[in-house]
Amino acid sequence: MEKSTHNRLFCFAGNEKKRSKGKRSPCSPSRVLHIRQIPNGVTGAEVISLGLPFGKVTNLLMLRGKGQAFLEMASLDAAVSMVNYYTPVTPHLHNQPVYIQYSNYKELRTDNQHNQARPQPAPQCVNAVQHGNLGITSALAAESGVLPSHGSVLRIVVENVFYPVTLDILYQIFSKFGFVLKIVMFHKNNQLQSLLQYADAMNAYYAKMSLDGHCIYTGCCTLRIEFSKLTNLTVKYNNDKSRDFTRIDLPFGDGQRTVETSLPFGPSVLPVPGALGPLTVTTSAAPGHMTIPDIPGNSVLLVSNLNPEAITPYGLFILFGVYGDVHRVKIMFKKRGIALVQMADASQAQLAINHLNGQRLYGRVMHATLSKYQTIQLPREGQEDKGLTKDYSNSPLHRFKNPCSKNFQNIFPPSATLHLSNIPPSVTVDDLKNLFTSKGSTVKGFKFFQKDCKMALIQLGSVEEAVHALIELHNHDFGENQHLRVSFSKSSI
User: pLDDT, tens digit, for every residue of 385-400?
Assistant: First the structure.
């Protein structure tokens, strides 16, 4: 590619039509993609964001008057992956569909043929392309008008966490924008936060420009990103909460499970370890959303080390129902300490594992993992079962039937403090304290909400006590069709 700063890029829709009459088929794969019907006001950075999940973007030309753009990918594989993905799933910019096809250009070139007619690209795009080797660096810098002056460490806050967000998922998303050196995850102010260090400050800039305000999953797990004042992260352990990708010799520490310190990445598919399966990330399906299609995988959990004297299908239905809609439960006939729990989908199954694996239940530490079974079979007629297999697929107690339910925003790990709602006006503090005490709980604190006396917080003696109380008292009937609602709280009294 020529690098004269006086050259201009000649490549526009009129030429595109003429070239289509040549030898090459308009459908022949090319690194250069032609994007049509771009709404007014769309920035170069937003167009670039269409291509970033699939690989490096090396050139961009915006034809604002025509609502079109040409995007050049670094490799043919990246361009093919992008077209293959967007062919069945039309991308949207500013709530309007845009259309992507292969261009007849093999690359975007600067040229000195002044006798050719050409469109006048927006000044920032011209300033970017005339330096040759545009790439994301100059395109994004052109959008903001200045080159960034900041460090290479980002502070990431994940809001509205409905599906589990792991260190590996963050790594796979952010590594699309450059080499990630270190990640540290932690909870602060009841929020999931992370510090992430890139090898280069410009990579941090790309990532913030492209990902800030987007959702990892549709409608939830929103990323809020800012530059950290830290210049370097210190990582002592390679585990689920911290990772130094330049050091494979670090201990795991704190009894954490072993983790992979290097992960293979394709041009567009992000392989997430464990149950989530391959996730294809695109930042363009809707404004402000980085959509990951429905997670493939198993929705049946294998739950083991249960107390056979205390556990019931209903108890598992209520407990696992905090994290998703439970369709079926089966306690093994010959091994009562083992059960299968079928969730509505694989995402809810993973969420339940995330919050309930390792939780104490009736004096034992429960283990939850994915089962090899894809569904729970109901017993055949006449088959001895003793009520150990239950179908809850049509239960009115499902918390997540309504996609607009506030329950989606109120999913928290098991805690000693429970959130109570739907409390009748006639029920007093003493009534509620006595109710929980009658189930074996130790009440350490209680308070009604000031603005809504139908809701309250109750703090019990331990997390395990709260788990037992939730199983026993969620949907407790106060009479006159008034049923108590119980969930775990992020607050304490």
Answer: 889 999 999 999 999 8
